[in-house]
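User:
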Amino acid sequence: ICNNVAPMIMSSKFEFDYQYFYGTSENIPAKIEVEKLIELSGIPGAFSYSYIYSTWETEAITAQQLRQNIGLALACVFLVSLVMLASIPICFMILFVVSLTLIDIIGFLHFWDISIDFLVCTYVVLSIGLCVDYAVHIGHAYLIQKGSQTEKAIGALTSIGPAVLNGGITTFLALVLTAFSRSYIFIAFFKVFSLTVCLGLFHGLVLFPVMLTLAGPTDTEEPHEDTDTKDKDEPDTDTDTKDKAGHSNDGFN
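Assistant: Predicted structure:
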């Protein structure tokens, strides 16, 4: 309005574009640099905002949260295995097998075009509960077997191995339908847990028995004689002596 004092500017904004960044090593420093420039401008109440900031901040803590959650889950796996199996060497072997399975899962996801985001992190942590199942059954069956390391490993495979294999196959069949989905949530779910089943079965039924054969704990109890068998094998001295002495004939009395 002409000849009137212009009102005070209450708010204003302007837009700018970020370049394409690859990973948190580039986008987080760029965001911090923009915030520094705004602070140096001295404009009260000024701030920067973009819808992509939430994604960047999530990616910044994803790796740290994934390491923390995996570490806590593996610690729980070791403690529960120790309580249930009461064998420290077997528990360390189970922990090693589960760790190898997780490393393989995360590595294969990279080549299967799946990035590590908060959703995949959740699936990876959940997969620990599945892949430990394939190893702990073999470890428990090994402990209750008798004989040498090789005999105990073979006995564990023949006694519980088919059941573990059937469990893995049925779990995979339950995942097949999600492979045909177009949603990223179900596609990532299928890829993570199908890798869990395949790699878990490989490490549990192939690698773990080999480790038990080479470095598994052996029986510490010495074999003892069966007292019942010993008693049966020993002759009855009283009966033998009586038979040798003959028997009385009542007809001559």
